Amino acid sequence: MLTSKQQDVLDFIRTYTLRNGISPTLQEIADGLNIRHRGSISKHLSTLRDKGYIHKPGSGWRGFELTEESTESSKPFSLPMVGKIAAGLPIEAIEHRDQLDLYDYLLGPNRFLLTIEGDSMIDAGILDGDIVIIQQQATANNGEIVVALIDQKEATLKYFYRRDAGKVELMPDNPKLEPVMYDGDRVKIQGVLVAQLRKY
Questions:
Q1: Which residue among 23, 120, 188, 199 is the active-site one?
Q2: In the annotation, is 73 catalytic?
Q3: The pLDDT of residue 100
Q4: What distances in angstroms separate CA 112 from CA 100, 135, 171, one per listed residue?
Q5: Which of 16, 25, 176, 199 sits a CA distance of 20 to 30 A from 31?
Q6: Is the pTM of this model over 0.85?
Q7: What domains are there in the chain, each with its CATH number?
Q8: Is residue 177 within 8 Å of residue 159, measured between CB atoms?
């Protein structure tokens, strides 16, 4: 039985290894899980090794491997796609047995999660407390929902529009709020919205 922190470390290792083909370094695990001290990561890895989830072939932690037990205990990355359901008019219920690979659908290189605070995007269906999945990138197309860093201080999630004279407009989706125009050099794109999660 793993603690929640140990499970987080194991899940990160599994996802990173699937994505990159090699195991992460201590620093990459610490950065990925927002843990300041690499020493605590080393302790978690020692516990995972002692419990049989990872194997360390040599000295140090670089190049450790997931064990068969780790693979068998992994959380599934796919769920059955069993059909469609109407949110408007009724439709005929048809049973399907497809699979949706959540790894391909939600995960991938250079993606990260953010928790939404506030109601500036409610008409886009993005509510306070939702978790959004962001594709990290430095450019965006007009009309995309982006994470924008303003003046190197404030990060916000808004529709992005590049305007004339080097201006950038960040547009909320809430009738109570107004769009804001900035000089282009004040706004840096941190990523683009690709999906959101909400637990009921």
A1: 120
A2: no
A3: 67
A4: 20, 7, 22
A5: 199
A6: no
A7: 4-72 (1.10.10.10), 111-197 (2.10.109.10)
A8: no
